[in-house]
Write a structure and sequence with these properties.
There is one protein chain. The chain is of the alpha+beta class. The protein is built from six helices and five strands, in the order H-E-E-H-H-H-E-E-E-H-H. The strands form two sheets. Strands 3-4-5 form a three-stranded antiparallel sheet, with no helix packed on it. A two-stranded antiparallel ribbon has the order 1-2. The chain is globular and about 50 Å long.
Length: 187
Amino acid sequence: MKFHDGSLLTADDVVFSLHRARAPSSGMKALLASVAEVRKVDPFTVQAKTKGPNLVFPDNLVNVFIVIAAWAKANKSEAPQDEKGKEENHFTRNENGTGPYQLVSREQDSRTVFKQFPGYWGRGQFPLQVTELVFVPIKSPATRVAALLSGEIDFLQDVPVPDIARLKEDKKLRFNEGPENRTIFLA
């Protein structure tokens, strides 16, 4: 598996990324709270030991972004940005991932553009008919739904709860939903 810059993904990058995700400034640290130790076994194998049983640990790992250790260090981004402190680092506006799409541009609170990555490791396993993705944050729930219904946007994430039933009934739309490994409750 290669990163967008052509670098090979190694166990060192995984170990670095898991330690990075456990840093105090990381928004992902809760996902790895049960981790006691992470170590490299060989160039392409990592072992994570938890403090006890954790059935959702494998599911939590999909939310941890693996980064190139050397790239992070070269760009002074060994620790995640401190979002609460409104700090930015190189990762705020740049990426070097392994996914099917790579970042073209990012205008915070306006739009983020991705293009298809020709060296994607999963090519042929997953459909990749979309060549460009443009994410446009729309703050108002009513405006988001109106943009979907008018065809201005192609998909909507975080559907407002009052609109779920109505959107499910619209034959022009495909409504996807699935389980999450979190609990939300009102007290």
